[in-house]
Amino acid sequence: MTETDVAKLKLMVVDDEPDNLELLYRTFRRDFQVYKASNALSAFEILNQEGEMAIIISDQRMPNMNGTEFLRLTVERFPDTIRILLTGFTDVEDLVDAINSGQVFKYITKPWKPDQLRIIVQQAVDTYRVVKKRTQELSRALRRESLFNAVTTAIQESLDYSSMLQKIVTIIGQTFETSYCLLRPIENNCLTSAEFSYLSSKTPLCNFSLAPNNLIEQVLESHHYQHNQCTHEHGLCYQLAVPLTYQQHLLAVIALFEWERDRPWQDEDIELVARVAEQAALALSQAKLYQSLQEKQEQIRAELEVARQIQNNLLHQSLPEIQGAKVQACCYPAREVGGDFFEVFVHPQGDLWIAVGDVSGKGVPAALFMASVISVLRRELSQQTPAMPNAVMENLNHALAEDLISNNYFITLFLARYTPATGELVYANAGHIYPLLWSRKTLTQNPNYLKIRGIPLGILPKWQAAFGQLFLTSGETLLLTSDGITEATVFKNINSSEQLNNGVKSTQRSMLNLDGLWQLLQQETQPLSLNSLLARIQADNHVQEDDQTILSLEVL
Predict the structure, then answer these.
(1) What is the pLDDT of residue 476?
(2) What count of other Cβ atoms lies within 10 Å of the Cβ of residue 408?
(3) What one-character DSSP code corresponds to residue 388?
(4) What is the C-alpha separation between 84 and 27, in angstroms, rounded?
(5) Are the C-beta atoms of 58 and 67 separated by less than 8 Å?
(6) pTM of the full structure
(7) Where are the beta strands (DSSP E) in 163-234?
(8) DSSP string, 230-285
(9) Residue 2 above 50 pLDDT?
(10) 15: helix, strand or coil
(11) Please, what is the average pLDDT of the chain?
(12) CA–CA separation, 16 and 58 (whole Å)
């Protein structure tokens, strides 16, 4: 029930003739709170003291200020008031102007008929109630929209879940002008120890507990809002607790605490707080989900960091010193972990085994297969007399093929055995990129590509391929890479026939490929540094798309 429904409406009559003023008062005093004023100045004083009138009946001809001027001055301050003008003469221009500008609802000529005046006043009452109802509805809608916007803005500005909770309780506490506002998060239908509160600057400091804990417990049990009133040493206190629920999950309870309030919580206020709580609950649910995802991502990052350390430990961090030879190797995964790997193994009999491999795909699954292949490979190479490289490949495929095929993965691998005493290099290639072999004396010529190659591991249950054999001499270098190197995009000069008009060669981005890698190798200073070579390749790649592995064996 609104104020206009419960109490008598206020009506003010303004007339400089005492008889008319008294007659109007007696006519309406039973149905209205009637206020009398003999002139405009007195009427303004009454308005300043009593506030808005539902209806103002004013005489037109009065000293100092006529009726239309007086009514016009009340429009801005009291736009909902219904205005009726009494006139004893026909002043057409003033009346038309007053009616057209919305200052006057009706005008009545003197002497008036009481029944006619009552009918007009009743029409004014009906109009006022409709206007007031619509104004109140619009005001509530604007207030709700303003509060929703404030909560939405606060949520968007919040950096994390906790700051969002504090923003919500502060906004609601300030908007509803509460003495104290408390928000308690809920986990698994139980109150957490966390509390977020707002205390009005007008609230006096005192030594009592402001928190309406009993009301919060009732909301926790019922999942519905609760409100009550209690007597306190500072006066009558009103409490309201509202659940923040999303998809039947209770996320939090917000409690509003007030004293020195002139009335209990009204249905309108409770509904508005409940609507805001619904919106806040939706935002909290999203923020909570986001926070949970962040926590899981952080956990995954931590686990991946451990996996990265384990993977780094699997790869040789310190390469062995080989008499008459120099080995360099680098491996940079595109993510925390990857599927690329290399192996440098010195057998007790003196042979040097080198390998570069690439598991299809990226990330954790590739890294797990990479760890498996290194484990099996080291077991094979640790035999008293290791098999030939192609036989080792067969054993690797036998051990891993079932898992690789069932998970749609495969492995490319180049494996070689180098005997320093004789310079013999025996190798097998399971679908890997051709290694490059060149001599310092023939840097201006094309390198030798070792092209004996079979299919990748994990394609067929049984792997078979021939091995290659050659002898390395002093000054020769063997380079092994993964496709992360050869497929890296770099800037290349366009042919001279496509030069720009100003004579400067144009450039375009394209894959490096083996030919481009060889061009870079020819430009490298001697002795060869893989770190320097990789730095040049990575300079053109701000985002590393694939794992990058490179290994060199240089005969001194």
Answers:
(1) 94
(2) 9
(3) P
(4) 15
(5) yes
(6) 0.55
(7) 180-187, 190-191, 196-199, 226-232
(8) EEETTEEEEEEEEEEEETTEEEEEEEEEEES-SS---HHHHHHHHHHHHHHHHHHH
(9) no
(10) coil
(11) 84
(12) 9
